[in-house]
């Protein structure tokens, strides 16, 4: 038994209160780290955001590291991070424009989807349960036995986040089918988000500040009401699939 499976089994043995405290602890560490980075580099980043020419020079100076970092971060956020992928895709559009920002966002999305499916198939139900929660995974258990293109189309078209990729890893559905459906359904949205991010370059400081504040508020609301919202989404999609 490898290390990842051992850690997954160990986590499953924790009482619910300990698991909740663990998640809150990670959120605290993440927010603290973000605050430190913002305090240290915030003025520099803000100066770049206000100067389009300086921002372009900064991006050119990154070379291939910039697109590679965006692809990797976009892929990893599907598997390990609670940050919505739209944030990364909008940042890609802001830095590289609507076309190349969309390309790098799409590559990251497809890479992350494939990685999530492979990890779920490699480490099994216990690992997915740690990410999704036992109750939510149980609600979707029957989907893991289906390879119907219609089922996976509805799942990917609905606002189900990264749920379909973990379920696909547990199912007998082929990777290629899910990747092609993602390419047809979700990649176009990636280009739209990148275009929105690219349009933010010409905004003045107070408009940027307003956008950041709205995004932060939406993220906070999502985290606060994540469980009831996901439960509602699950019920709506399952009713559609059963209809």
Provide a descriptive summary of the structure in words.
By secondary structure, this protein is mainly alpha-helical. It folds into 2 domains: 50 residues, no CATH class; 191 residues, no CATH class. Helix content is 84%, strand content 0%. Helix 7 packs across helix 9. It is globular and about 55 Å long. The protein starts with a helix and ends with a helix.
Structural class: mainly alpha
The number of distinct β-strands equals: 0
Helices and strands, in N-to-C order?
Answer: HHHHHHHHHHHH
Oligomer: single chain
**Number of contiguous helices:** 12
Helix fraction by DSSP (H/I, runs of at least 4): over 70%
**Major beta sheet summary:** none
Shape: globular
Low-confidence stretches: none
Q: Which helices and strands appear, and what pairs or packs with what?
A:
Layout: H1 3-12, H2 16-50, H3 52-62, H4 65-79, H5 85-132, H6 134-139, H7 149-157, H8 163-170, H9 175-185, H10 187-199, H11 205-224, H12 226-242
Helix pairs in contact: 1-5, 2-3, 4-5, 5-8, 5-9, 5-10, 7-9
In short:
The chain is mainly alpha-helical. The chain contains twelve helices and no strands.
Keywords, please?
single chain; 243 residues; mainly alpha; 12 helices; globular
């Amino acid at each position: 038994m490898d290390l990842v499976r051992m850690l997954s089994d160990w986590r499953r043995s924790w009482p619910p209160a300990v698991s909740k405290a663990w998640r809150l602890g990670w959120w605290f560490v993440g927010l603290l780290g973000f605050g430190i980075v913002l305090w240290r580099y915030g003025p520099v980043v803000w100066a770049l955001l206000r100067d389009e020419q300086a921002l372009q020079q900064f991006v050119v100076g990154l070379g291939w590291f910039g697109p590679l970092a965006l692809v990797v971060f976009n892929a990893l956020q599907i598997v390990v991070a609670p940050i919505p992928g739209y944030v990364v895709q909008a940042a890609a559009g802001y830095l590289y424009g609507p076309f190349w920002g969309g390309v790098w966002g799409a590559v990251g999305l497809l890479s992350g989807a494939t990685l999530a499916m492979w990890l779920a198939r490699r480490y099994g139900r216990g690992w997915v349960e740690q990410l999704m929660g036992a109750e939510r995974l149980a609600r979707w258990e029957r989907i893991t036995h289906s390879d119907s293109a219609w089922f996976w189309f509805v799942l990917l078209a609905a606002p189900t986040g990264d749920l379909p990729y973990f379920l696909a890893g547990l199912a007998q559905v082929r990777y290629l089918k899910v990747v092609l459906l993602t390419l047809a359904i979700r990649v176009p949205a990636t280009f739209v988000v990148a275009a929105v991010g690219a349009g933010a370059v010409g905004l003045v400081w107070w408009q940027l500040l307003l956008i950041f504040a709205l995004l932060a508020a939406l993220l906070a609301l999502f985290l606060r009401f994540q469980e009831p919202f996901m439960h509602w989404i699950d019920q709506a999609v399952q009713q559609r699939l059963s209809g």
